[in-house]
Specification:
This protein is an all-alpha fold. Helix content is 55%, strand content 2%.
């Protein structure tokens, strides 16, 4: 009993001590949080008071912050190793490296460099034929020729376009619980790929996305580009339409600030930013440009002639089928009314009045709210026929057959787009400060405190607001836009931007490691027609990009010790491939990849490049889910890179991966004359190099031991390996071939190696 009481007392004492410690920690945290918040609120109130009394709300330090300083081309630094400098990029990097008493890494081997450039520029590994062609090219400018070839490849836009889709949180489904699919979203994806392949100037690239319908009303391509405004999550049954409309416009505003300006402006939505010189009014000035946006699913592509011809053909068809369609409508009307009444009753009275009203009598914001309401009253295709009784359904089907005997003219291609609700915009009000009145469209005051000059478009019936925003973003004296995009391109090749926080150039982000280089690249972009490929070419042809990632010299070891994060870029970092590149590399190795361009997205089992797979927010492709793909809800400036057990288990056990191993094994056995040549080809296809002598011995021994184990039945064959699709009829006949199974295992092993998953 005494022992029990003693143990109970000790337990209670320990619990009390833990409770006191937790309370003390919580108290300290609360004090810190309150102090931090108080400081932030005080700063916010001080800025607001200064602005209200006509004083400059910004300090000299605010205005001198590096991201907001005007652009100017810096002088090239003088370096000791002039022969290492291929272009100005090298001069800026080398000056810092030498200043730290270090030296750059030696160049990578030709094969390492070839694979690196193919993966970075195209997202694909080189084929054995590509490797042989490069190595047999003895011309002194073979590298520059290769770079030009890569930049001219259609795969360039597919690879680089995927990074832009990350930034604009591209997705093909609504999100939320229903996550309904958006069958037209792919047209924006294809527009991005085409634009980058054509090297569309970056100012035009911006303008078409922000205001394609206003600025280029005769361009179908520009209308597709407004799909940029349609990537917001959509809640199909949100009855609070005011709230949902606000969420949509806020989402567009936030992503625009991050994508083009590199500013976390969302932090200024409720109050002045606590760290950056960004005012609450800045947020709503930017939001005002998007206040009149109206999503449209009923617009079509085509010039005036095509639209006129279609209208004429449709009118003729409607006249021919008027009686049939009238009877179909008679059957459909009561069912449609019931479905719509159910949805109608779920709305508040104020929204029911908007639904019942004449649209012409509504204000701009009421038209937007009514549009959102009407989306919820749409009757799903096939729903009416499903609810008909047996007799009515029989008549319905007979009428449909009769209607089919009158071919309807092919409709013009539909598009997922956005326009303005009209020439007048809804007012932009700051919540809680409505008495201050509407906020006029404008820009971050630290850069430009003037209100925007808006010219409504009589031709398009738009406010002209988004055109004004695009023009401001593309001004030569806008310091953020060119800095942000060249930094994003740099990240593609070095794994980290000169500013590592690519979506945040504010004080909460990281400062640039090489500010002069960043500015030089930004000015270079502007002065070369805003050609993005020009920046890509400069990086690819620099000595810095051609450095080795291998650590083989004392100088490299010293550089790692002094600069473990590689902030000086004194070596090329070893990098894990993204989800799409891993999947595509397997398809290239197996010889199955479908390189056709564009078109509707396909299911996750498709053999097309990964950029053409369906992008569903709640049901991502398996490779995206396992290998850190973006979530599609937020702008993703840089992907996370994790190393987890599920990744290894996925590559080992997933049926899709095993099917690629089977196809690869069949390919090398079919094309090789003997085992040695098959092993050579296997390594070339998977790793882009020949096997080393030790690897040849290991592969030969592995094949022999696997055959013996399979013949003896010591190895259980997984059902996945014997049923993995797709298998040809010939492959199915060979399913019991022990040699084939052993080669399958060897191919599967190589597809799981780090050397495939990483590029150096």
């Amino acid at each position: 009993m005494n022992i029990a009481r003693s143990l109970e007392w000790r337990f209670r004492r320990k619990r009390a001590v833990r409770a006191r410690r937790a309370a003390l920690a919580l108290g300290i945290a609360k004090v810190a949080a309150v102090g931090f918040l108080a400081c932030g609120i005080a700063a916010t109130r001080a800025r607001a008071d200064e602005a209200e009394h006509g004083k400059d709300p910004f300090t000299e330090e605010d205005r001198a912050y590096w991201a907001f300083e005007p652009l100017a081309r810096p002088m090239l630094p003088v370096t000791e190793r002039e022969r290492w400098v291929e272009n100005p990029i090298d001069a800026f990097l080398l000056a810092r490296i030498e200043g730290e008493g270090l030296e750059p890494s030696p160049p990578a081997s030709p094969r390492e460099l070839l694979r690196r450039a193919w993966i970075d520029a195209l997202g694909l590994p080189p084929s054995p034929e590509d490797i042989e062609a490069f190595e047999s090219d003895a011309r002194p400018d073979r590298w520059e020729r290769l770079v030009d070839r890569l930049l001219a490849s259609p795969a360039f836009g597919e690879r680089q376009g995927r990074f832009w889709l990350d930034v604009v949180r591209y997705a093909e489904s609504d999100g939320f619980r229903a996550d309904a699919y958006r069958p037209l979203a792919w047209k924006y994806r294809d527009w991005v790929v085409r634009s980058l392949n054509e090297d569309k100037p970056y100012d035009r690239f911006i303008a078409e996305q922000i205001a394609g319908d206003e600025a280029f009303p005769d361009s179908p391509e520009a209308l597709i580009a407004t799909g940029y405004l349609r990537h917001f999550p959509y809640e199909h049954n949100q009855r609070n339409l005011h709230l949902h409309r606000d969420e949509i416009i806020n989402d567009i505003t936030t992503v625009t600030a991050e994508a083009f300006l590199g500013l976390g402006l969302a932090c200024a939505r409720c109050h002045d930013h606590k760290f950056d010189p960004l005012l609450q009014t800045d947020y709503f000035r930017l939001r005002a440009f998007f206040e009149p946006v109206l999503p449209r699913d009923d617009l079509t592509l085509g010039n005036d002639e095509a639209k006129s011809r279609y209208a004429s053909e449709l009118a003729r068809w409607e006249a021919e089928t008027a009686t049939i369609r009238a009877e179909l409508e008679e059957l459909a009307r009561p069912i449609r009314a019931t479905i719509q009444k159910t949805a109608y009753d779920l709305f508040h009275d104020k929204y029911q009045r908007l639904i019942d009203a004449d649209p012409a009598s509504l204000s701009p914001i009421e038209k937007q709210l009514r549009h959102l309401a009407m989306l919820q009253l749409r009757v799903p295709e096939g729903e009416i026929e499903k609810r008909l009784d047996a007799e009515a359904k029989k008549r319905w089907q007979a009428l449909e057959e009769e209607l089919a005997r009158h071919p309807k003219p092919a409709p013009l291609p539909p598009v997922l787009a956005a326009v303005d609700v009209g020439p007048e915009a809804p007012p932009t009000l700051i919540p809680g400060k409505e008495e201050l009145g509407p906020v006029a469209p404008g820009f971050p005051a630290i850069l430009d405190d003037r209100s925007a000059e808006i010219l409504p478009s009589a031709r398009t019936g738009s406010t002209g607001r988004r055109t004004a925003l695009a023009e401001w973003l593309n001004r030569d004296d806008n310091p953020l836009v060119p800095r942000v995009i060249v930094n994003r391109i740099w990240q593609v090749y070095f794994g980290r931007g000169i500013v590592s926080t690519t979506n945040d150039f504010g004080r909460l982000g990281e400062p640039p490691t090489h500010p002069e280089l960043l500015d030089w690249l930004a000015v270079e972009l502007i002065e070369n027609g805003r050609s993005l490929k020009h920046i890509h070419r400069l990086i690819l042809t620099s000595s810095a990009y051609r450095q080795s990632a291998r650590v083989e010299t004392d100088a490299q070891r010293q550089a790692i010790a002094r600069d473990p994060a590689n902030r000086l870029f004194a070596r090329m970092p070893l990098r894990r491939l993204e989800a799409e590149a891993i999947r595509d590399a397997m398809l290239v190795a197996s010889g199955e990849i479908d390189l056709s361009l564009g078109g509707p997205s396909e299911g996750h089992d498709s053999l097309r490049r990964s950029i053409y797979l369906e992008v569903r927010r709640n049901s991502p492709a398996p490779f995206h889910r396992v290998f850190d793909g973006p979530d599609g809800f937020n702008s993703c400036g840089a992907r996370n890179i994790t190393v987890t057990a599920p990744q290894s288990l996925f590559l080992l056990n997933n049926e899709w991966t095993i099917a690629r191993a089977r196809a690869l094994a069949d390919l090398v056995r079919r094309e090789a004359r003997d085992e040695a040549e098959a092993i050579e080809l296997l390594y070339l296809r998977v790793l882009g190099r020949s096997p080393r002598p030790a690897e040849i011995r290991a592969a030969t021994s592995f094949l022999a031991s696997q055959r013996l184990r399979i013949e003896g039945g010591d190895v259980a064959r997984t059902s996945a390996k014997t049923s993995a699709a797709p298998l040809s009829e010939t492959s199915a006949m060979l399913a019991n071939d022990d040699a084939r199974e052993a080669w399958l295992d060897l191919a599967h092993v190589l597809l799981n190696t780090n050397e495939l998953l990483y590029r150096d």
